[in-house]
Amino acid sequence: MKRIAKRTMTLVSLGAMIGLSACGGASGDNVSATQAEMGTLDPANPTTVAFYSYSLAYPTMKPGMEQLIKEFNDTIGKEKGVIVEGVPDATMQQYKADISAGKAVDIVQHPFGTLDSSRISLGFKAYEDTFPQEELERHLEGISPNALELGKIDGKMYGLAFTFSTPIVFINGKLFQEAGLNPEQPPETWEEIKAASLQIKEKTGKDGFGLAPSNGWITEGLILSNGGQVLSDDRKEARFAGPESTEAISMWKDLYQNGASAAGTEAELSEQFMAGNLGMYASSTALHSGAKQAADAGGWKLYGAGMPRFADQEAVPVNSGSVLAVRPDSSNKNAAVWEFIKFVTGDRGYTIITSQVGYLPLRTGLADDPNGLKDFVEQNPLYKINLEQLKKIKPVAIWPGDNATEIATLFTDAIVKAITSDDDVADTLTKAQDAINGMIQ
Questions:
Q1: Are 182 and 175 in contact (CB under 8 A)?
Q2: Which residues contact 237 (CB under 8 A, 6 or more apart)?
Q3: Labelling 170: which of 184, 262, 280, 363 has CA 20 to 30 A away?
Q4: Helices (H) and strands (E) in the chain, counts
């Protein structure tokens, strides 16, 4: 998915946060950079919150996201005095245009990679500066600790992990069996992926494996799984041209250029897999419902596997998806936004997100809860793979500074060129890394 932009606010003391939240505030107060004041909501005069969401613009995710908003408006929103208006934002550009135009943009379903840019230039705020500390800490209990680290910049949460997945290899059980492979014992290493892919192609005439060179996020997991780095820990230097990274991308290039990985974009490979013409497809669980429907309609069974590893090294999955980034402009908006955040990232919210939209439940206990997702996970065992990978997930890179969008594009373009062209992998990655570091410095 694509990446975008954000603006910082200053940390407030715990005592001030609790005191201000307890006494409330006037409806139209502008909130200063050092406040975390919570206004008094009024059901008779509800506060309207604008929520910009790319999921609302995608047919497979739209119904679940609409249900999420409707349930909130019909229950907690009605009770407390909050109305959430969803704004579809397929290209993740509308919220930027509306901010520039001076419109209220209160919550954004924001991709990870350009979060720092939005923090700097578009007025997005840290959660610690916007909501009462005790309430925030209490609400975050039960969410995967690894997930809570994903939207942090310089130790502060500028986005709460919302909808995301770890990588999964979807498997067409019919093509596996026709090729003499066992889908219940899927490949675990990249070497085994290559062998299985070539066997499927030889026996069935169909492509065996697909991973789009322009996919972005899985690329980072590939590099990390071979001991490489994408960005330094302090986010001041790109490091994706080292020997381990070069070796990982060279392996992928070998798959791609020697018939073991199908050519195509994410959309093209997804369509190929749904049509039953691709043995394995590496992507996000957001595609699970569509893949399952395609399998049922096509008369084949859907299987899955986790992120492949390099030889005896442990695979290191990274995350796709989004955070909830916030920029309320008054004490009442603080209170209204907080009510919606609590609902959509609470038990009911994640039950809807996982069962209706397809992403992981970051409240992992729901997978064992009979009133939550226990039945759903048992009926859809591929989610168990993702939940297991969540225990060892590493954050996808949040590119630093105002140039985050340009940096992300340079990185992706270099990976595509390294894989699909005859150019030297190390040279291609080094040139892109140097260009990016020039932008960071």
A1: no
A2: 231, 437, 440
A3: 363
A4: 19, 11
Bridge partners (DSSP) listed for residue 305: 169
116 in Cβ contact with 153 (< 8 Å): yes
DSSP line for 275-300:
TT-EEEEEE-GGGHHHHHHHHHHHT-
SS3 category, 303: strand
Taking phi over 0 as left and psi of -120 to 50 as alpha, with beta for the rest, 280 belongs to beta
Q: What is the CA radius of gyration of the chain?
A: 22
- Angle value at C-alpha 429, between 393 and 233, nearest 5 degrees: 40
Q: Token pair for residue 238?
A: 């790109």
The pTM score is: 0.84
28 contact partners, CB below 8 Å, separation of at least 6:
330, 332
Residue type at position 55: S
pLDDT digits (tens, 9 = 90+) for 223-256: 999 999 999 989 999 999 999 999 999 999 999 9
**H/E stretch holding 209:** strand 207-210
Separation CA 421–CA 423 (nearest Å): 5
**91-114 burial, b if ≥16 CB within 10 A, otherwise e?**
ebebbbebbeeeeebbbbbbbbbb
Helices (H), 24-93: 62-72, 78-80
265 three-state secondary structure? coil
**In contact, 247 and 226? CB cutoff 8 Å:** yes
55 contacts 109 by C-beta, under 8 angstroms: yes
Split at pLDDT 50, 70, 90, the class of 137 is very high
CA-to-CA distance for 349 and 371, rounded, in angstroms? 13
Q: Which residues face 53 on adjacent strands?
A: 88
